[in-house]
Amino acid sequence: MATEKTTNFQNGVFQAIVEQCEGCERIVAVEETKYCGTYVNPGAKWRQGMCNFATHAKPEVAVVTARINPLKAAKRASKRK
Ligand code: SF4
Q1: Which of 14, 38, 41 has most ligand 1 atoms within 8 Å of CB, for mutation?
Q2: How far is the CA of 79 from the centre of ligand 1 (A)?
Q3: Hey, what's the torsion of the CAs at 20, 22, 28, 31, to 10 degrees?
Q4: Please, are residues 35 and 11 in contact by the beta-carbon 8 Å criterion?
Q5: pLDDT per position in the chain (81 positions), as tens?
Q6: How many CA atoms lie within 13 A of 17 on its CB side?
Q7: Number of the ligand 1 atom closest to the C-alpha atom of 53
Q8: Which of 25, 78, 13, 79 has the alpha carbon at shortest distance from 51?
Q9: Which residues are bridge partners to 11 per DSSP?
């Protein structure tokens, strides 16, 4: 099975990793070239932002805290009745 996997990387189906992949645990090194064990085209995974399978980087979760004015909230609630 391991040989089968290696063949996939060598027959040109899989493309080499991109710079952003460096440090990811899914990288598979075959001879001189590094490939992603998960994606055929790692470059495409990074084109639109972060690769969601990257093990070395996590997207920063933007926490948006909605500030609620308690007085206004009470007014709104009372109007609804
Ligand atoms: S999982 Fe994503 S970051 Fe990791 S090697 Fe593959 S494409 Fe690159």
Answers
A1: 38
A2: 52
A3: 110
A4: no
A5: 456 667 778 888 899 999 999 999 999 999 899 999 999 999 999 998 899 999 998 767 667 777 888 888 899 889 876
A6: 21
A7: 1
A8: 25
A9: none
